[in-house]
Design brief:
The mean pLDDT is 93. The chain contains seven helices and 21 strands. The protein is of the alpha+beta class. A hairpin with a 2-residue loop joins strand 6 and strand 7. Strands 1, 4, 5, 10, 11, 14, 17, 20 and 21 form a nine-stranded mixed β-sheet that branches. The chain has one domain.
């Protein structure tokens, strides 16, 4: 029986600051993590990615629970109707009274840059002359750290919990289970949300595309983020080169638990595209990204077929 689907992906950002940390003086600082050698790599928090996925789910036709939450001071009480709201089902919720709580069946890693932060900054200005004052009045200046990078991320979905709600999660006397068709539809829409992912801060002037340029999809008989540490790359002749040995090692390690594997590759992104197709083709179909997402949707469509 399949226990999880896992998606590892790579997103390319040419210039941006998707998820800023805080402000130092007049500088908007990007979120970074320090490596053992002292270098720093940028990252996009899992919370920010979950927000973007929620927004895409809403765009794809699912109403969210947030407009129906009760707000009192700093406390937000969700409606706790996961059978009605896809975000409560997939991303969980917490009743501040402590009576009802659902842990997210969709586990999202931070998206971590594969290359060190180089210290680049974007300079912005606002001239008071545009507000009817003399040029001598000056204006103000601000800076935003930005980067060009390839980000790796992972999603793990616990299949035995999607569309199934325990009494402790809802406060009801018995568990609820959604029809298999609705459970499959919610997962298929989540896959499409990743396929069209974008968002973050400063999109008015630093719009970025976070949809995958490479994706690995696996349906497993165990719950494990198999692709989480399987992506690395280097930069050569103006293109990224994907290291394949870590990915092959991960696939071999979980050979006994793999049910289905599909890969998606955006043409023209990687310098070793033919090598990627040759090596990974022995483990599963290597398609374009949108074709791989479509194949993954078809695979999800076989779940709970006996329900």
């Amino acid at each position: 029986m399949s226990k999880a689907i896992v998606l590892g992906y790579l997103a390319k950002i040419s210039a941006g600051n998707v998820n800023a940390s805080h402000t130092e003086g007049n500088v908007m600082v990007t979120k970074k993590v320090t490596l053992p050698d002292g270098s720093m790599i940028p990252y996009i928090s899992g919370q920010a990615l979950r927000r973007m996925l929620r927004d895409r789910l809403e765009e794809l036709g699912y109403p969210l629970s947030e407009p129906f939450a009760q707000v009192s001071g700093q406390e937000v009480t969700p409606p706790v109707r996961p059978w009605e709201f896809v975000d409560e089902d997939l991303f969980g919720y917490l009743d501040p009274s402590g009576g009802r709580r659902r842990t997210s069946p969709v586990r999202v890693s931070a998206a971590v840059g594969l290359f060190p932060f180089q210290g680049d900054r974007d300079l912005g200005t606002r001239s008071f002359e545009r507000f009817g004052q003399a040029m001598a009045a000056g204006g103000n200046m601000f800076e935003t750290e930005l980067y060009a990078n390839l980000f790796k991320g992972t999603l793990l979905v616990e299949l035995d919990r999607v569309g199934l709600f325990k009494p402790l999660e809802t406060g009801e006397s018995s568990e609820r289970v959604l029809p298999a068709e609705e459970r499959r539809k919610r997962l298929q829409t989540l896959l499409e949300a990743l396929n069209i992912l974008w968002g973050g801060g400063r999109t008015a002037r630093m719009l970025v595309d976070l949809s995958p340029k490479f994706i690995a999809y696996a349906r497993l008989q165990v719950k494990h983020p198999v692709f989480l540490e399987a992506f690395s790359a280097h930069y050569e002749n103006g293109k990224y080169v994907l290291a394949l040995q870590p990915l092959v090692n991960a696939l071999e390690k979980f050979k006994a638990y793999r049910v289905q594997v599909v890969f998606g590759l955006e043409p023209g992104t990687f310098g070793n595209e033919e090598e990627i197709r040759s090596v990974l083709g022995g483990y599963g179909a290597v398609l374009t990204v949108h074709e791989a997402i479509a194949q993954a949707k078809q695979d999800v469509g076989t779940l709970w077929s006996q329900s």
